[in-house]
């Protein structure tokens, strides 16, 4: 089959004129915005602010979930801080708040609350823990848009990313959203940091056309097979510096508009997957309520499922990819086991996160996914379940 539905990534929109009354959807409750070269730099800047708030701590620590992107670690290490991992609540990507409380030591300066594939962390719960202990709370909303920590001012700072595979794809860029009272610390942390102007001229427009073309089914199928491009691989990369970015207002406006105009496929997936979810599979975020946008169904970057077992996940991932569907295991492992991070942490014992990573399957949910693709996905998974998994699902349950 010489075509494939890419696992993630929306097309890059064409810049549009900005209306005079436009403002960023997150520009409420006194939050300010600083644009950076990418989301990792934005997170690194937020950690620098957290450290500056507690200058008396000589060995700062930052708490992260045990399952997540290695860029989280890169942002912490870039500021000379120590990443401390916390295990998850069962069958979720959210941190166990009891374990979080035990992990907070005298050197803790910040907690990073990571929104996972459109499902926000429990910011109210984490905010109460952090406020009681005077710890900086950062919402990593790289995979969630709009960010959820603004409406009730739960988060001290919020991170956005505009790279491939993110809710708003601008082919790069990131943003740090922070409470107004932190402005002096942001200016201090940035100092004389240079700014990179992101042009949307002829070269950028050509790059956009090529980028969008490569995301089509036949080109993506071919590009994925090129080994040195490392398509879809998760690896640790350092964050050597922080650099401001000047983003085009016309492009950012177009990206935000395009996000809200994309079709919402969650209900169709939920309906089609209903039978599987009655037989051992779990659809993540199906009970998620966006309190900041009640009644609003916002697009997600991927649909996330937990299989009844790691074997079931592996069978489904293999069968779907053979059929031209970009299903993935996402990061594929907990942070201590990812390439470049082996031996980085004192402990690799995070049983809940390890179980979660072994059973996670993500399905494409971008604007090029058709109803027929979803029917095909579910048909394949139901057949696999009926053929091979019934006895295993019974044993696991």
TrEMBL record:
Can the keyword Endoplasmic reticulum be found in this entry's annotation?
no
A Pfam match is: DegT_DnrJ_EryC1
The entry lists its GO molecular-function terms as:
transaminase activity
Recite the lineage of the species.
Bacteria, Pseudomonadati, Pseudomonadota, Gammaproteobacteria, Pseudomonadales
- Similarity section: Belongs to the DegT/DnrJ/EryC1 family.
Q: Does the keyword Chloroplast apply?
A: no
Protein's name according to its UniProt entry: DegT/DnrJ/EryC1/StrS family aminotransferase
The record's listing under InterPro entries reads: DegT/StrS_aminotransferase, PyrdxlP-dep_Trfase, PyrdxlP-dep_Trfase_major, PyrdxlP-dep_Trfase_small
Keyword annotations: Aminotransferase, Pyridoxal phosphate, Transferase
Looking up SUPFAM superfamilies in the UniProt record yields: PLP-dependent transferases
């Amino acid at each position: 089959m010489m075509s494939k539905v890419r696992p993630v990534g929306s097309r890059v929109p064409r810049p549009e004129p900005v209306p005079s009354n436009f403002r960023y959807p997150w520009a409420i409750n006194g939050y300010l915005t600083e644009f950076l070269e990418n989301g990792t730099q934005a997170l690194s800047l937020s950690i620098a602010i957290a450290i500056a708030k507690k200058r008396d701590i000589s060995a700062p620590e930052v708490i992260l979930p045990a399952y997540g992107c290695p860029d989280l670690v890169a942002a912490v290490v870039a500021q000379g801080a120590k990443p401390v991992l916390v295990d998850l609540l069962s069958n979720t990507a959210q941190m166990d708040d009891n374990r979080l409380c035990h992990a907070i030591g005298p050197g803790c300066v910040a907690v990073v609350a990571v929104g996972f594939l459109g499902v926000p962390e429990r910011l109210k719960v984490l905010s109460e823990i952090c406020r009681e202990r005077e710890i900086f709370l950062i919402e990593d909303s790289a995979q969630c848009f709009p960010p959820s920590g603004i409406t009730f001012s739960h988060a001290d700072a919020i991170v956005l990313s505009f790279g491939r595979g993110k809710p708003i794809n601008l082919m790069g860029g990131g943003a740090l959203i922070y409470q107004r009272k932190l402005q002096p610390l942001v200016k201090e942390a940035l100092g004389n940091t240079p700014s990179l102007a992101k042009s949307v001229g002829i070269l950028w427009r050509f790059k956009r056309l090529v980028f969008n073309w490569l995301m089509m089914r036949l080109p993506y199928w071919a590009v994925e097979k090129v080994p040195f491009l490392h398509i879809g691989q998760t690896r640790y990369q350092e964050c050597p510096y922080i650099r401001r970015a000047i983003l085009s207002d016309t492009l950012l406006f177009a990206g935000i508009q395009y996000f809200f105009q994309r079709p919402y496929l969650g209900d169709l997936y939920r309906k089609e997957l209903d039978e599987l979810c009655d037989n051992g599979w779990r659809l993540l975020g199906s009970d998620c309520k966006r309190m900041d946008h009640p009644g609003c169904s916002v697009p997600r970057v991927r649909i996330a499922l937990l299989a009844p077992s790691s074997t079931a996940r592996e069978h489904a991932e293999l069968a779907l990819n053979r059929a031209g569907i970009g299903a993935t295991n996402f990061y594929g492992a907990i942070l201590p086991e990812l390439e470049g991070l082996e031996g980085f942490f004192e402990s690799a014992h995070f049983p809940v996160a390890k179980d979660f990573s072994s059973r996670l399957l993500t399905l494409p949910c971008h604007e090029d996914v058709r109803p027929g693709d979803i029917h095909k996905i579910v048909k394949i998974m139901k057949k696999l379940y009926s053929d091979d998994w019934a006895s295993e699902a019974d044993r696991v349950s």
